[in-house]
Amino acid sequence: MCKEACDGEIARLYGPGERGNGSLYDLILDYPLRGGKALRPALSIATCLGLGGHLEAVLPTAATLELYHNAFLIHDDIEDESWWRRGKPTLHIDHGVPIAINVGDAMLSLSLQPLLDNVERVGLGPALRILRAVAKMTRLTVDGQALELDWVRSNSWRLNDADYLKMVELKTSWYTFITPLQAGAIAAGAGPERMEPLESFGRHLGAAFQITDDLLNLRGDPQEYGKEIGGDLWEGKRTLMLLYTLRHAEPKDQDRAIAILAKRRPSPDGEELTDLLDRLAAQGELSQSGRAELVARLQSHQPSECKSISDIRWLFELMLDVGALRHARDVAATHARQAAAVLATLDWFPHSRHRDVLADLVDYVHGRTR
Amino acid sequence: MCKEACDGEIARLYGPGERGNGSLYDLILDYPLRGGKALRPALSIATCLGLGGHLEAVLPTAATLELYHNAFLIHDDIEDESWWRRGKPTLHIDHGVPIAINVGDAMLSLSLQPLLDNVERVGLGPALRILRAVAKMTRLTVDGQALELDWVRSNSWRLNDADYLKMVELKTSWYTFITPLQAGAIAAGAGPERMEPLESFGRHLGAAFQITDDLLNLRGDPQEYGKEIGGDLWEGKRTLMLLYTLRHAEPKDQDRAIAILAKRRPSPDGEELTDLLDRLAAQGELSQSGRAELVARLQSHQPSECKSISDIRWLFELMLDVGALRHARDVAATHARQAAAVLATLDWFPHSRHRDVLADLVDYVHGRTR
């Protein structure tokens, strides 16, 4: 029901409506209507209703947070060269990179108006608090992404669980949990003193969520999970498991792992073309010097050595050997329990089916860790 | 002076500051500090000061509009496959597409906070009016871009000057002229009754500006202009000149022009590789069947026929033949004169060196038309 209400609101706020030129606005609705979990709107709506607010007070904000998230998914899919999202080709595979960049930008740009219209909907003070919460969220998310990219780019690895958790708080927890919870509470009229406990709840939930998401990226079933498997390893993302592995491996394995991580990810195109060139050369249809020239030409766009599938397999085996996956599941479970503990202390949040949504979410995230 | 103040403000608001992870924040400053015209901040600052406001009241808003513009430039350069911007390689050429997308998103996302901080700086009412102006600007800009993309994608051509001017008002005038002018006026305490004349001034100036920009794209000196020449024709952008040409060409030329516009733009990579394959085949280093297989493989990513340099030259000759460039210069000059006429009616805008900035800008845009 909540998902349907949110889909309807996204279509009302951001869809073609009476605008003539349909195609961009159709594409804005593409990802949101593919049937994702709509986690962020669910959190906002459950918190607002659970604290005695009305659905109309929170719905545009919830829809806007979901749109924001989907804009980043579209751009992330380009950046990560992902081909598949929620059971369909990614937007840039379907429509090309230029249109996918443009659609994401349009979604980010359009999100300001509904938050300004909150002034009439929930009053000036709460509307400004929601705007400030969103501004803070975007700043922290950008900081978290910058930190993660920097670690990959500089091939950093002397990082511990606390470093990883700080990065995840910035990159994930604010944007997926803390701000949706706080925005829902503000829309229900909750005072500033309610913000800190919600932040604490969202921080623990975010840590558990991101760690399990990273675990699923390594091991999950493509049918169920809907994303490319092992993509994080190819990209060299500093997950809790990878950092634990680097800290706990034998020195020679450590060196080899760091050397692998320094290699770039191969582009799918380059791989296939190289295979084709090899075959033509083997069949005598291409001279060796011609092959060398073509390979050099192709590699001029990918100057450094690429990770190979055996590199990735070796890294994964090393993770298993040092117990990194078990460690990550333990840390995720601890944070899920801490989230449940914080939720239990919120005596100002009456028991109701709305509060149950939050408790169920903790269980769901916890369940994914097993 | 105004440019320096704005650069300093951008660095203060959006630069690395005390944040540890420098590289993303360094890249945010890359385009703004390359020494563009900083047209939008100049308009905001001149209007604010000219109407008796203080520099501090408008500076963060001016810097934010400039940042917004630079975020779109970064993403446009990816979408247009541009290699060169303000005398240096584009950001995605220097740092790769993923980082360039990310940096642009970060810039768009960070722009909310300074506009919210306007509440303390210029008061609640003006701050909200500036926020609403920016929200309107982004919505109209998105609509304009969507319209332009739709015209290219659907190969539309039964469009007249009025259609083009409406698209330009949406795509360019609000974002480059009207909103910067209005935001400057609001920061100076101007009432809502001042908004309409500024909108009219900015609309005419925007039309003259975009038409001359399109003319320079066809004919300009790369050294001076700093962008790829003729890129609009390769992309099939519906400029005033192109639409005039399509309307005024002989039927058989019309058909040929429309057929050329239906072809896609070749990717620079594909072109070079095809040349290399031709040379290898000519030298006997590559068999004809091997060449055919490689060409097919390369073209599987560009299934439809590509525009050729002789297509582009023919289109340009046709434009000259029908007098499209002369017509465009006339329309641009008319709008520049109308902008000057509107400016002359603004009796509430005292004569000063700040008002002279606006008058000089009209002259500058007018001068570019010759």
In short:
The structure is a homodimer of 370-residue chains. Chain A is mostly helical. Chain A is built from 20 helices and two strands.
Notes on the structure:
The structure is a homodimer of 370-residue chains. Chain A is an all-alpha fold and 370 residues long. Chain A has one domain: Farnesyl Diphosphate Synthase. Chain A contains 20 helices and two strands. A two-stranded antiparallel sheet of chain A has the order 1-2. In chain A, α3 packs antiparallel against α20 and α19 runs antiparallel to α20. The longest helix of chain A is centred in the middle third of the chain and has 30 residues. Chain A is globular and about 75 Å long. About 2% of the residues of chain A have low confidence.
In terms of topology, how is this protein built?
The structure is a homodimer of 370-residue chains.
Chain A: H1 2-14, H2 22-30, H3 39-50, H4 55-79, E1 84-85, E2 88-89, H5 91-95, H6 97-110, H7 112-116, H8 118-122, H9 124-153, H10 161-187, H11 195-219, H12 222-225, H13 231-235, H14 240-248, H15 251-262, H16 268-282, H17 288-299, H18 309-322, H19 324-345, H20 353-368
Antiparallel strand pairs in A: 1-2
Helix pairs in contact in A: 1-4, 2-6, 3-4, 3-10, 3-20, 4-6, 4-10, 9-10, 10-11, 11-19, 11-20, 14-15, 14-19, 16-17, 19-20
Biggest sheet statistics of chain A: 2 strands, antiparallel
Unreliable parts of chain A: 221-227
The radius of gyration of chain A is: 23 Å
Mean pLDDT of chain A: 88
* SSE string of chain A: HHHHEEHHHHHHHHHHHHHHHH
